[in-house]
Amino acid sequence: MTAQLKQLRDKIDAIDSELLKLVSARADLAREIGEIKNGTAYRPEREAQVLARMRELNPGPLENEQVARLFTEIMSLCRSMEEPLTVAYLGPRGTFSEEAALKRFGSVVTSLPCNSIDDVFSKVEAGKANYGVVPVENSTEGAVGRSLDLLLQTRLKVCGEVALAIHQLLLAHHTDLARIRRIYSHPQSFAQCHEWLNVHLPHLPASARINAASNADAARLAAEDESAAAVAGKKAGEVYGLTVCAENIEDDPSNTTRFLVIGEQEVAPSGRDKTSLVTSVRNRPGAIHELLAPFAHHGVSMTRLESRPSRAGLWEYVFFVDVEGHQQEPKVSQALRELVEKAAFLKVLGSYPAA
Ligand SMILES: C=C(O[C@@H]1C=C(C(=O)O)C=C[C@H]1O)C(=O)O
């Protein structure tokens, strides 16, 4: 070892000793906080503030996203000193939902992969998991209807959101595209990579695209079949030991999926929040305008408006609305009070830190 290398490693050792002391002191404080605070250990608003502060203070060379990942992991450890959390997500292992759950909660949780979005809701409702993570919309393919329908029915609250850049890969046993006879994927992922597949696998008819229950399931099916490929994420490829034929095959490079965290908790304001609600108006001229007017009137920005057929039969459509701000903020609460007078139905799904 050269003298220079030894000198640099000695410096790293000294820093590691300091880091260990600091992280241990932090964990002790978290445990102390756990003893004095009531209710659940996980406080999304506080964690969002910690991450925002670290992004602000970041001196480099690490990128803000890397710093956020590091501190999410530190908080995950500190939180586990207070209370071990179980997080349910749309499985199996290797799905983007798992990635979203990790991004929000870090790795020091018990993860509970579920077979369906329905199952994620029921696990949390039954108290088998503290929180659930479900996809709610994709920038290419739009709303995930089942999540919206269940949000309408559930007594659970929306406690958070996660935005995840979705990069799709073509995975197989080898990289010879000409030998691929069929491709497995989730319909959403097929739709996100439609053009790429047409251009790069022109020999395959549409019937060679076979729908799977999830991307991870598609990877599992491809792993069992030498002449098959899967469109799925990196993680799924790793879980099932597949070779990467092509990366970033999504037609839109900014392809993003938004996930919601659901749980029993009412989240306090973080200073930069969103509120999700579902509402419906009686079917008459100007009805939609009436629905939007209270937000405009109180200067509340709407970030999303999604209509969905009502299944109750009583009204034709329900509208899923996201607005900026926490329901405890005066302008949001005033707008909601005004809306409740006009709407045939209003359910506030929750306020939570904006991703
Ligand atoms: C330490 C706390 O508990 C948890 C852990 C946090 C942390 O490690 O910074 C932050 C919020 C909570 O999820 C707290 O409430 O402050």
UniProtKB/TrEMBL annotation:
PROSITE patterns: ACT (PS51671), CHORISMATE_MUT_2 (PS51168), PREPHENATE_DEHYDR_2 (PS00858), PREPHENATE_DEHYDR_3 (PS51171)
Alphabetical keyword list: Amino-acid biosynthesis, Aromatic amino acid biosynthesis, Cytoplasm, Isomerase, Lyase, Multifunctional enzyme, Phenylalanine biosynthesis
Taxonomy, superkingdom: Bacteria
Keyword Amino-acid biosynthesis: yes
Catalytic activity: chorismate = prephenate; prephenate + H(+) = 3-phenylpyruvate + CO2 + H2O
Tagged with keyword Methyltransferase: no
Pfam families noted in UniProt: ACT, CM_2, PDT
GO BP, sorted A to Z: chorismate metabolic process; L-phenylalanine biosynthetic process
Residue ranges of domain Prephenate dehydratase in the record: 86-264
Site (Essential for prephenate dehydratase activity): T257
Residue ranges annotated for the Chorismate mutase domain, each copy included: 1-86
Segments crossing the lipid bilayer: none
Subcellular location per the Swiss-Prot or TrEMBL entry: Cytoplasm
SMART domains from the UniProt entry: CM_2
UniProt pathway: Metabolic intermediate biosynthesis; prephenate biosynthesis; prephenate from chorismate: step 1/1; Amino-acid biosynthesis; L-phenylalanine biosynthesis; phenylpyruvate from prephenate: step 1/1
GO cellular component: cytoplasm
Major location (coarse): cytoplasm
Single GO MF annotation: chorismate mutase activity
Domain ACT per the UniProt entry, residue ranges: 276-353
Function description: Catalyzes the Claisen rearrangement of chorismate to prephenate and the decarboxylation/dehydration of prephenate to phenylpyruvate.
Name of the molecule in the record: Bifunctional chorismate mutase/prephenate dehydratase
Organism: Nitrosospira multiformis (strain ATCC 25196 / NCIMB 11849 / C 71)
Lineage of source species: Bacteria, Pseudomonadati, Pseudomonadota, Betaproteobacteria, Nitrosomonadales
